[in-house]
Amino acid sequence: MVVVLGFQTSQTADIKHTQMKRQTIVVLSFLAIIIVGLMYYIGIFARVHILEKDMGPYQLVYKQINSKDDIGKTIDEITDQLSSLGISPFKGYCVFDEDLNAPDKKAVAIFEAGCVLKQDDLGKIDTTKFKVKEFPKQFCVVSNFRYKMGLSVMLGKLKVYPALARYFKRKEYKQSPIMELYGPRSISYIIPAK
Asked: What stretches of 23-152 adopt beta strand conformation (E)?
């Protein structure tokens, strides 16, 4: 009788062990699907497309900045100030002066950050309180990257900047400051073609 109980206990342990393996496989498969789905959602698998086209004119409200850490804060600050005046900015933006071919990416100069105005709102701006300028209509190299969350900004730079560097080298264009336009669904990387 003891042997039978021992056999049943061993068989029950094997069944429980098999069930735990199945549950672990199901949970890990589910997590893998979620991780791959998130990676797709933020654009890790997206191809970088580069085109040349006319961009602008854009009316820009901006502030000079010196740190990447100030970009979001500056855009939010200007957006809030404009919203208090009944002006709804079109997009946020920043301008970098970055050599796309430089091995040391720490030598990045950030010129400005701010908001793009709708044409109708330009007359509502008090230029004594805000810095305003125009990005004129011009021929540019442009790439778009999906903007889903804050991580998209970093991922976009990791994917788009090397592709732009190769494109500029192949076309023998002179490097210009890079404008990043932050829209609700995409980040546009705009570089005047020279």
From this structure: 50-55, 58-64, 91-97, 109-117, 131-135, 138-146
Q: Which of 96, 99, 101 is nearest to 166 (CA)?
A: 101
Q: Residue 177 CA to chain centroid, in angstroms?
A: 17
Query: Tell me: the pLDDT tens digits for 138-174?
Result: 999 999 998 877 778 888 888 999 999 999 999 998 8
Residues 6+ apart with CB under 8 A from 133: 59, 60, 62
Which amino acid is present at 20?
Answer: M
Indicate the angle between helix axes 150-171 and 2-42, nearest 10 degrees: 50
As a whole number of angstroms, the distance between CA 102 and CA 40 comes to 29
